[in-house]
Amino acid sequence: MKNVMSNKYVIALYTLPALLLILTLIYIPIVLSGYYGFMDWDGIGEMTFIGLDNYITLIQDKLFWTSTYHSFLLAIFSTASLLLYLAISLVLASKIKGSDLLRKIYLIPMLLSSVAIAQLWMKIFDPTNGMANKLLEMFGVENTPIWLADPDIALYAIFIPVIWQFAGFYILIYYAALKNVPDEIIEAAKIDGASSLQIAYKIKLPLISGIFKVTIMLAVVGSLKYFDLIYVMTGGGPNGASEVMASYMYKEAFKLNNFGYGSAIGFGLLVIALFMTWLISKLTKSKDDVQF
Amino acid sequence: MKKKAFSSVMTLALAGGLILGGCSSSTGSNGESSSGDKTVVKMMHLWPEGSSNAQYTIVDDIITAYEKENPDVDIQTEILGNEQYKEKVKVLSASNELPDVGITWAAGYMKPFVDGKMFAPLDDIAKEDNFVAGTLDAFSVDEKPYAVPLELNITPVYYNKEIFEKYSLEAPKTYDEFLNVVETLADNKVTPITLGNKDRWTGSMWYMYLADRIGGPEALNNAINRSGSFEDPALVQAAEEIDKLVKMGAFVKGYNGLSNDEAKGYFMNEQAAMYLMATWELPNYTTTPDVSQEFKDKVGYFKFPTYEGGKGDIDSYVGGPGVGLFVSEQSKVKDEAKEFVSYLVEEWGKRSVVDAGVIPATVVDTSNSELHPMYIDILNDLGNATNLTLYADVQMSAGVADVHLNQIQALFGGQTTPEEFAKTQEEALAAEK
Question: Where are the transmembrane segments (chain A) (predicted)?
C-alpha cells in the first residue's frame, strides 16, 4: 500500500477526477467570464472585442459601488450575528433541558429552500395583511413600515430572514466544536473553582477560536456573493435600494442583455471576494493556535 | 499556509459556482428530439395553471387535440410565471438551448433574438389576413414575421361595483371625477387602487395613460422614437399627476414592494376598489371557474378618464399585441414545430373567445357564440379604439426600458422629482442614438 501511494503516477491518477471536475466546473468558467468581460455581447448575437472598456466602466459605475456597499453591509451584519449564534450554541452545549429539541428547531430554516423562505417572509412583510405589521398594530403602532417597498429599510428587512436562514448552519458548527472541547479540562477548571462564565470565556472560546475564524470567512464570502433572497424578495429594488453585487451582475447579464458587462461585474466580485479572504486570513492569523 | 490555500480554493469555488450558475441552466432541449418513434416538440409558455387558468386550459386542450390528430408527435411543455419566463428564455438562448416553440413579446424585447438569428422566420405560416391589422407587424423585423401574435389587449380600469355603490360613487369619465373617487375612498380608509409596482411595468401603464390623456399619444411616442423629447411639458405634467396621486394615498400601501400577482390579490379579495390591468385579466372576471360568481358580478370596468384641457381622447388605449409564438431557428424539428404553431394559433383564436374570454390576435367570427357581456363591451371598445399605444418598456430597447422602469419606481416612491424623472429618461434615450 505504501508503495502504491508513493508512486507519483498513481497519485496523479487518483486526483484526476476531482481535478477535472474543479477545472471544468470552476476554473475554466472563471477564466471564460474574465474573457467575456472584454467583449460587447448581448448573450445572443455576435461578440465584439472592446478591450478594457467594460472594466473601466465598472470602476466608474456608481451602481456597482452602491451594490458593493450593500454587500459589505450584509457581510458586517452576518459577521456580527455570528456572536449571537455563538451565544446560543454555548447555552445549547451546556446540557440544559431540551437542548436537543431546540437544536433541531434552529436547524429547520436550513432545510427550507431559499425561495420558500423568501415567499414566507414576503408574506410576513406584506404591508397590509402581513404578520409583522399586524403584530405592530397590536402594540398600537400607527404608521407601520412598508418594509420591502421603503428604500431606506428594504435592505435591512431582508437581512432579518438571511440571518434567520443561516442560524442553524452556524449553530451546528459551533455546537459540534464546543462538544469537542475535552471534558477533563472543564472538570479541572470546575475543581479550581471557575464559574461557568469563566469556563466559557477562558476555556471554551479560546479552544474553538480556529473554528470561529473559519466561520467568519464563510460568513463574509457568503455575504459578498449573496443573491437568492434578495432576488426573490425585492429583485434589487425599489429602484436599486437593495441591489447587491450578485443581483446587479444578474440584472446586467440576464435582464439587460449585457453579458459582457455582467461578466466583468462577476469578475470584479471574484476579485473583491479573493481580496477579503486574503485580508481576513491575515487579520485573524495567530501563532498560538491551540491543539488538543 | 494550508488554511490560506484552503480558503482561497473555497472562495474560488463559491465565486465560480456563482458565475457558472447562469450558464448551466436546467433543461437540455435540443439534444434529444425523438423518444422512441415519436417526434418530441418542446414548448415553453407562461400560463401556470394557478394564476392563468383559462389560458393554461386552452393550451392544454389544444395540445391534447393536436396529439390525437398527429399520434407521432409528442408536445412537451414547460411552464413558468411571467417574470421568470422572460429571464429563462434569455438564459436558454445564451446557451443555444431554446425550446422548439416558445412565447415572446413584440418589438424591443424580440429584436436581439432576431438579430442573433435565434428565431426562425415564419413568413411561410403567418398570413397577414388572418390577424387583426397591425398585430403581425409588431412581431415583424424588416417586413418578415418572426413570431405569430396570440393575444390583443387593451387596458381598462377594473373596479369593484359594490365598493363604489357603498360610497355612492360612479365610474368616472373625467380625471376630476376620478380624483374625487380616489379622495372619497381614501377618506373612508378604503384602498382606492391596488398596484404591484415591484414589477414596474404596472406603474408604467398609469404613467402612460396620464401622458396620453394630457399630451395625446404623440407625446410619449415621439419621445421614444426621438422625434420629440421626454422633457415635453405634457410628459412632465403626467409625472406631476402621478406624484399627486401618490400623495393622496391613491395606491395600496407598500405598492413598490408588491408584485403584480400580490397586488392583484388585494383586488380579488375586495380590499382595493380599482385595478388597472390589461384585458388578459378578463377571464378572472368572466369565465374562470375558480373565481366565485359573486365576485365576478361585482367587477365592472371603465375607460381611463379624460384630462381637462388634455389632447388625448377616451378611446385611446395603452395596449397592443401581448405575446406571440416563436419557433427556434436551432430546432431540429422545425417543420413539426411550425405546423404545431399554426395549428395552435388557429385553435387559440377559436377557443380563446368562447372558453376563456381572452381577445385573440386572429380574426374570428364571434356572431354565433354566446359571450359574456363584459367581453362583448371590451370587444366593441377595441373596435372603436382611436389609438393603441404599445407598452413603453416593450417599445424601448432593454437598457433604456430599465432606466424608464427604475424611474417609474422612483417617481411612485417619491425619490425623484417630475423634472428629474423626465431628464433622466431624456438622457438615456439621447445616449442611445
Answer: 12-38, 72-93, 105-122, 153-177, 205-227, 259-280
Partner A contacted by B262 (CB < 8 A): yes
**Per-residue model confidence as pLDDT tens digits over A9-55:** 888 898 999 999 999 998 998 998 889 999 888 877 778 899 899 99
Taking the Cβ of residue B178 and every Cβ of chain A, the question of whether any pair is shorter than 8 Å is answered with no
Does the beta-carbon distance from B258 to A149 stay under 8 Å?
A: yes
Nearest residue in A to B86, CA atom: A255
What is the spatial distance between Cα A40 and Cα B151, in angstroms, rounded to a whole number? Answer: 34
Q: Which residues contact A154 (CB under 8 A, 6 or more apart)?
A: A147, A148, A234, A237, A238, A241, A242, B257
The verdict on B25 touching A (C-beta cutoff 8 Å) is no
Higher model confidence: residue B104 or residue B38? B104
* 8-state DSSP, A39: E
Confidence band of A65 (pLDDT split at 50, 70, 90): very high
- Sign of CA pseudo-dihedral B100, B102, B105, B108: negative
Write the CA distances from B397 to A3, A148, B49, B182, B403, integer angstroms.
Answer: 66, 28, 31, 34, 10
Residue whose C-alpha is closest to residue A74's, from A202, A228, A198: A228
Evaluate the CA torsion angle A105, A109, A110, A116 in order and state its sign: positive
Q: Domains of chain B, with CATH numbers?
A: 31-151+322-364 (3.40.190.10), 154-319+389-432 (3.40.190.10)
Quote the DSSP letter at residue B328: B
Which range is most confident: A90-94, A183-187, B10-14, B196-200? B196-200
Distance, in Å, from the CA atom of B46 to the CA atom of B322, rounded to the nearest integer, reads 12
- Mapping DSSP to helix (H, G, I), strand (E, B) and coil, where does residue A216 land? helix
The length of chain A in residues reads: 292
Cis peptide before B112 (omega within 30 of 0): no
Compare all CA atoms of chain B with the CA of A220 and give the residue at the minimum distance. Answer: B11
Cβ within 8 Å, pair B117-A45: yes
Q: Could you read off the pLDDT of A213-264 as tens digits, one per residue?
A: 999 999 999 999 999 999 999 988 788 899 999 999 999 888 888 889 999 9
CB contact (8 A) between residue B413 and residue A238: yes
∠ CA B191-B255-A120 to the nearest 5 degrees? 105
Distance from CA of A208 to the nearest CA of B (A): 15
Residue A65: how many CB atoms within 10 A of its CB?
Answer: 13
Full set of structural domains in chain A with CATH: 62-283 (1.10.3720.10)
Q: Cα separations (Å) of B323 from A25, B49, B236? A: 36, 18, 30
- Terminal Cα-to-Cα distance of chain A (whole angstroms): 30
Residue A292 binned pLDDT confidence (cut-offs 50, 70, 90): low
Nearest to A160 by CA among A129, A107, A118: A118
Nearest Cα residue to B238 out of B276, B212, B272: B212
Q: Is residue A238 packed enough to be buried (19+ CB in 10 Å), middle (13-18) or exposed (0-12)?
A: buried
Residues of B in contact with A227 (CB under 8 A): 18
Alpha-carbon span B408 to B103, nearest angstrom: 26
* Nearest-CA distance B399 → chain A (Å): 6
